[in-house]
Design goal:
Layout: H1 2-21, E1 29-39, H2 50-66, E2 70-75, E3 85-91, H3 96-107, H4 110-113, E4 117-127
Antiparallel strand pairs: 1-3, 1-4, 2-3
Length: 140
């Protein structure tokens, strides 16, 4: 009887250890295309109509929204004297078709054409179900 108890306890302990040794299944990861708009190396020459360039830049962002590919866009508030990343654009999950459309829009942006902004295309990865409206792990 005692040997059956010890054998049973050993089996339970082995199963517990084996279960603990199993790697945790990774959370489902989602991806989005993120474009960082960094400050370019070009300095506007005197007389440059920066307002016109900015209007064209904003019109280009609206065109991406009208094209149905833009999720979020906006400038970044930077610490004093740190203006390397000026803004972000967020799009849907990466695909070659989407990247081609994004690159086409970026090529038409007057601030990028003039060298005042440089786009850096990246992939943002995050846990499925994450929200911009609530901290991770909460239901909002």
């Amino acid at each position: 009887m005692r040997s059956h108890f010890i054998a049973g306890l050993t089996a339970v302990l082995l199963l517990a250890v084996a279960d603990r040794a199993q790697p945790q299944q990774p959370a489902t990861i989602e991806q989005r295309v993120l474009v960082l708009l960094e400050t370019g190396s070009t300095t506007p020459p005197p007389g440059t109509d920066m307002r016109a360039l900015q209007r064209g830049h904003l019109a280009n962002i609206r065109a991406m929204a009208e094209d149905g590919i833009l999720y979020v866009a906006g400038p970044l508030a930077s610490p004093e004297n740190d203006h390397r990343v000026r803004g972000i654009l967020m799009f849907g999950p990466p695909s070659q078709q989407l990247l081609t459309r994004i690159e086409g829009h970026l090529a038409n942006d007057p601030m990028i054409k003039a060298g005042y902004l440089v786009p850096k295309i990246r992939t943002l990865m995050f846990e499925k179900g994450a929200s911009l409206d609530a901290p991770v792990g909460t239901s909002g």
